[in-house]
Amino acid sequence: MNPVTLKSPDQSLTASGIACRRSERMLFRELNFTLTPGQALMLRGPNGSGKSSLLRLLAGLLPMAEGALSWCGRPVDEDRAAYRADLAYLGHLDALKPQLLVRENLQFWADLIGATVPVDNALAKVGLAPCADFPAQHLSAGQRRRFGLARLLLKPVPIWLLDEPSTALDANGQKLALDLIARHRAAGGIAIISSHDDLAVGQVTTLQLGGAA
Amino acid sequence: MRAFRALLKRDLGLGLRQGIDALVVVLFFLAAGALFPFALGPEPALLARIAAGIVMTMAALASLLSLDRLFTADYEDGSLDGLALSPLSLELVALAKVATHWLMTGLPLLAAAPVLGLLLNLAPGGYPILLLALVLVTPALSLLGGLGAALTLGARRGGLLLAFLILPLFIPILILGMGAVAAVAEGRSALGALELLVALDLGLLALVPWAMATALRQVLR
Q1: Which residues of chain B have pLDDT under 70?
Q2: Pairing between strand A87-90 and A40-44?
Q3: Does any CB of chain B come closer than 8 Å to the CB of residue A90?
Q4: Topology, domain A13-86+157-208
Q5: Strand order in the sheet with A159-163
Q6: How confident is the model at residue A4 (pLDDT cuts 50, 70, 90)?
């Protein structure tokens, strides 16, 4: 994998006092963390505790009810487009069009974000090369998840936001996901991961949401 | 620009692969329009007088058919998240969707309009102005339709809501389109109505993508 280019010596993601409200209910508040290159944050908590919402909030898809988020020492609101270009978000939906071939699906995302890694390389890295010419509707749940991982590999970006990256993956797939995360971190990337499984991603900070928080 | 082209290319590809969609729109347009001679009686003079109005009204109704699917698939499979996080702004995403709708609906309707005109005994001299008016009317229909699709995305029975929301907005477009047709039929200049239509198209082009992007941002929350 290409190393993540360091844009600033202070390439850190800082959340200070962030809160998220979903239809009048406060999901969480007063969350604080700072992640520097190579660090990972593991989000834990029961269903509905706001793990996915926090990831969507960090991606900029949800508005923050309170608090501030800064990237490279500057508030992300100052330059949303630049922040967006520095992150990759893997939600629990796979954004696959069943009518298109697997390769065509990935090619679209590659063209859209201006990929620097060839589509076939990304497919090969996640073990989907043999299915590249299948219509996407024939993919299994695990293969669809692998497609999501392939989307992360199209362009090296410093921040990965992964919502349950290991769901539906078999043992090899889980190992693959862990391996990709480890390499991303080794290259100076930041990862924020929500997971129910005990994903052994090495040295992580854990953020407990809901109940015990 | 590259990202805009990629989205347009994918959506057109998806549309053509389900060629049935464009076909259904055209068949509905022709079949519904062809009902009028049966309901009104086969009186050639009456039909000739109202033919252009029927063609334009049917074009407006037919353009509603494919609207509720404009964003639904992208919303349901998570593609909309990816589009919102891509370098392409949501305004341009909206514009690409409107362009796709026009190419997959407006353009086929333009091609089918002379056929319906023939079925309705439209006077030979009425074709050029009817087609010219439709060239200006259909983009406005796609723009307003796209706005309705974005506003009703995620709503239950969105398709029905969409029709109620959008049909009243179609009224000024139809009035201007028919104004041009009527002017030519009465031997006057259609320039005034056509200029207003162009102004309407440009105004909508400037405002609608922005309004659609705002609506889409609300849906993503």
Answers
A1: none
A2: unpaired
A3: no
A4: Rossmann fold (3.40.50)
A5: A87-90, A159-163, A190-194, A40-44, A205-208
A6: low
C-alpha angle A120/A126/A129, rounded to 5°? 40
CA pair distance B14, A107, nearest whole angstrom: 14
Spatial contact of B184 and B190, defined as CB atoms under 8 Å apart: yes
- Per the CB < 8 A criterion, the answer to whether A102 and A147 are in contact is yes
Q: How far is CA B167 from the centre of its chain?
A: 11
| A94-121: pLDDT as tens digits | 899 999 999 999 999 999 999 999 999 9
Domain boundaries, chain A: 13-86+157-208
Question: Which residue ranges make up each domain of chain B?
Answer: 2-220
Distance from the Cα of A4 to chain B's closest Cα (Å) equals: 18
Put simply, whether A63 touches B (Cβ < 8 Å) is: yes
Q: pLDDT tens-digit profile of A151-189?
A: 999 999 999 999 999 888 999 999 999 999 999 999 999
Tell me whether residues B82 and A92 touch, CB distance under 8 A: no
Per-residue pLDDT of B84-104, as tens digits, reads 999 999 999 999 999 999 999
Tell me whether B77 touches chain A (CB under 8 Å): yes
Inform me whether the C-beta atom of residue A109 falls under 8 Å from chain B C-beta atoms.
yes
Question: What's the mean pLDDT in A46-71?
Answer: 90
Q: Which residues of B touch A151 (CB under 8 A)?
A: 82
How many A-B residue pairs are in contact by the CB < 8 A criterion? 74
Inter-chain CB proximity B85 and A84 less than 8 Å:
yes
Chain A residues near residue B2 by CB distance under 8 angstroms? 111, 114
Q: Whole-model pTM?
A: 0.90
